[in-house]
Amino acid sequence: MNSMEELPESCISQILSFTTPRDVCRLSAVSHTFRLAGNSDPVWEKMLPVQYRHLLARLDSPLQFSSKRELYFTLCHPNSIDGRTKKFWIEQATGKLCFMLSARDLNITWGDDRRYWHWISQDDSSFKEIAELVAVCWLEVRGQFDCEFLSPGTAYTVSFRLKLHKSPLRIGRIFRRRFIRFFPRTDGWDHKPVKFSVTTPCGDHQEYARYLRNTDTPVGNEGYQMTPFRHVEEGWMEFDAGRFVVPEDGDNSGMIKFCMREWEGGDWKGGLLLGGVKIQPTSLVNERTNANQE
C-alpha cells in the first residue's frame, strides 16, 4: 500500500472522525476518495456536539437537512429554541456549542414594572425584545444556565450584551412627583462601576467591575479587578462576567449562575439597553477582544 488513498473509504472515514471539522474540510480537498469519506454521515456525526439531538427537539422552527454535514453547517448559524428565549450555534472550526440568552430569559429586578424598565424591539438586536432601562437606583440582573448543554473540556466566558443610549424623554414626566431628576442622556454610570459575577456549580465565585460609560476608569480603589469588554457592532458592548471550565469527564451537570448589579452608590441610572447574555468558548472571546484592540 503506497498511500492512504488505497485504504477503503470506511477506514478513511474512521480516521477523519478523530480529527476536527476544519481538518475534515481541508483533507476533503485532497482527492475524490477523501472527499467521499469526508462528506459521510459517520464523520459528521462525530463532529456534532453530543447534545445536538436534544437541542434539535427544542428548536422553534424545525430544520431541513439531507446529511449530517449539511446539518453541521446549518447549526453554525444561530437557531432559536425554547420559545425564542434562547439561541444556540456551534463554532464552525471546532464544533463547540455557543449560547445566547435573551433578556426575557433573565431575572431583572423590577423588570415588569414600566416605571423602571420597558420592553422594546430594535433592528440591530439578536431577539425580538430587549430590555430598556428607564431609571433605577437598584440595578440587578441575574441568570443561570445548565452546564449539561455545554461542550465538555471547554473553557467558557459569560458576557452581558449592553448598549448605552439616550433615555426616553418621558422619564421626567413619570418620576416628577418622586423628585427624581430628568435624564437627558445616559446618566448615573460615572459614580460607581457595575459589578459582574459568575458562580460555578461547585461554588467557585468570580467578581469583576467596570464603568459602563468611561470604561477606562480604574476600579481598583473599589476593591475589584477590571472586567474585559469589547465593542461588537451598532454600539453594542459585551462585558465579561467571568470564566469557567466544563469538566471533560462528563460530570458537567449543575447550573452556572451569573449576575450584573449596581446598588451600592444609591444613584439613579438610566439609558441602558440589555440585549441578553452570551455563553461562548473563551478562545472565541479572546480572538474578538484581540481584534478589537488592533
UniProtKB/TrEMBL annotation:
Residues 1-47 form the F-box domain. It comes from the Eukaryota. It holds the Pfam family PP2. InterPro entries: F-box-like_dom_sf (IPR036047), F-box_dom (IPR001810), PP2-like (IPR025886). PROSITE patterns: FBOX (PS50181). Gene3D superfamilies: 1.20.1280.50. This is F-box domain-containing protein. It comes from Picea sitchensis (Sitka spruce).
